[in-house]
UniProtKB/TrEMBL annotation:
Keywords: ATP-binding, GTP-binding, Nucleotide-binding. Transmembrane segments: none annotated. Pfam families: PapZ_C (PF22740), RapZ-like_N (PF03668). The keyword Nucleotide-binding applies. GO terms for molecular function: ATP binding; GTP binding. The gene is rapZ. Residues 1-162 form the RapZ-like N-terminal domain. Residues 169-285 form the RapZ C-terminal domain. PANTHER family: RNASE ADAPTER PROTEIN RAPZ. It comes from the Bacteria. This is RNase adapter RapZ. InterPro entries: P-loop_NTPase (IPR027417), RapZ-like (IPR005337), RapZ-like_N (IPR053930), RapZ_C (IPR053931). GTP binds at residues 57-60.
Amino acid sequence: MRIVLITGISGSGKSVALNVLEDTGHYCVDNLPPALLASLVDTLVEEGLESLAVAVDARSAQSLATLPAAVERLRAQGHDVKIVFLTANTHSLVARFSETRRSHPLSHELRPGQNPAARRTLIECISEERERLSTIEQLGHVIDTSELSANKLRAWVKDLVAAERAPLTLFFESFAFKLGVPLDADFVFDVRALPNPYYDLTLRPLTGRDAPVIDFLNAQPSALDLMNDIRVFVEKWLPSFKTDNRSYLTVAVGCTGGQHRSVYMAEQLAAYFQQSERVILRHREQ
């Protein structure tokens, strides 16, 4: 069975991701206690279902510790298990809860001996949830949704789930430093030292995927040198991540606005590595 576990911080888009998976034919279950995962899989296998998506969150605090072992048992039984961890910075989460006027799931929990009138603040709930899920975050692929629209998150989840089973999937992601560094990045490379096409009025409306911008940067020795340095670095360390049984590695490339230099560099690197690796290319600001 193909199993996708969606987990992460409340407000980071778990419902959006689960809806995407439901639309692609997965049998979906929201807020399942990890202790019930194995029995659910057994039941659905008996019924002949092939694709399952499960959302797990911090409300299952008592059984969260059993999730890593449950995942390993399922994989040992031959099931294809992917884990997607969604997160966002605290500022974005607070804004989302304010916009929707919904309460945080942990706000209804009381600490031992706590007066019912003295509930956690939203910031305290987010902090507590991050702490509870800190070990789970290391199990799968992290997606930082701080600067993502719902439509872009849907597309990224589809790409991730569609990825063929391979020893490691290599992500190249462009971004704008002015909007923050992606929280899901394993490596971050800064290409702001390169000549900026933005200052050429004919190139400003274009992106790093357009031929005139590509030609402009290809003509810059510094761009080619930096590209080669990043390529050599990734090639050198990629085997170590594979032997460490990593499933995903995210290489983020940033420039000022996330439109020209970072897009160009991510595109070129992805084109090079996809000749030998499973590669997914993403542009956060486009």
